[in-house]
Amino acid sequence: MKERPILFSAPMVRAILDGRKTMTRRVVKPNPVSIPEAEVAHANWVIQNRVCPFGQPGDRLWVRETWLSYRHLHKNGRDEALLIYRADGEDLPKQARGTKWRPSIFMPRWASRITLEITAVRVERVQDIGDEDAEAEGLSWCNAASPRDKFQCLWNSLNLKRGYGWDANPWVWVISFKRTNV
Questions:
Q1: Strands lying side by side in the sheet with 3-7
Q2: Are residues 75 and 41 in the same domain?
Q3: Which DSSP string corresponds to 97-160?
Q4: pTM to 2 decimals?
Q5: CATH code where residue 47 lies
């Protein structure tokens, strides 16, 4: 079993904590976004036989999220370091005001509160997602008719500027997981 970090935004962390998110899609890199039709079968075979950089079933992912730490001085004189996570809301205690949020990319392992166990990994094109998988992505926003349309909205908000938008139909790692109590 291996352990690796994975980044999630505050809304996605909230969805994990609420039990709504049990799946994530990440772009396969390098990604053969535009493949001539004659080469699709070969490209599919190559991509299907890559090793997922996020891990395999049984491996664990520790979640990196936006956070801050601050020092709290108790009335009895005891000094304590406390952590706050953006996904929990933005009401900061008086002692933490003025402290800057730290980006998720800089979260060390000791500060992570969520560990996920990978239950399945596969590769597919992003547009192959169905409503059931879109529901497992944990979305609760985007004004769209179907779960798949909501996912498309989210996907473009995260990946369009990077050249991996919905219309490019990139290959993605589909990682299913369950939350653990480690």
A1: 3-7, 60-64, 115-125, 171-180, 23-27
A2: no
A3: TTPPPBPGGG--GGG---EEEEEEEEEEEGGG--HHHHHHBT---S--SSHHHHHHHHHHHHHT
A4: 0.85
A5: 3.10.400.10
Listing DSSP states for 31-82 in one string gives: ---S--GGGHHHHHHHHHTSPPTT--TT-EEEEE--EEEEEEE-TTS-EEEE
Q: How far apart are CA 13 and CA 86, in angstroms?
A: 9
Range of the domain at 49: 3-64+109-180
Quickly count: other Cβ atoms within 10 Å of residue 63's Cβ: 23
Q: For residues 107-124, give the mean pLDDT.
A: 95
Tokens of 115: 């560990």
Contacts of 114 (CB under 8 A, 6+ apart): 13, 16, 17, 62, 63, 65, 179
Residue 82 has pLDDT above 70, yes or no: yes
pLDDT for position 181: 84
Average pLDDT, the chain: 87
Average pLDDT over residues 44-73: 85
Same domain, 131 and 153: yes
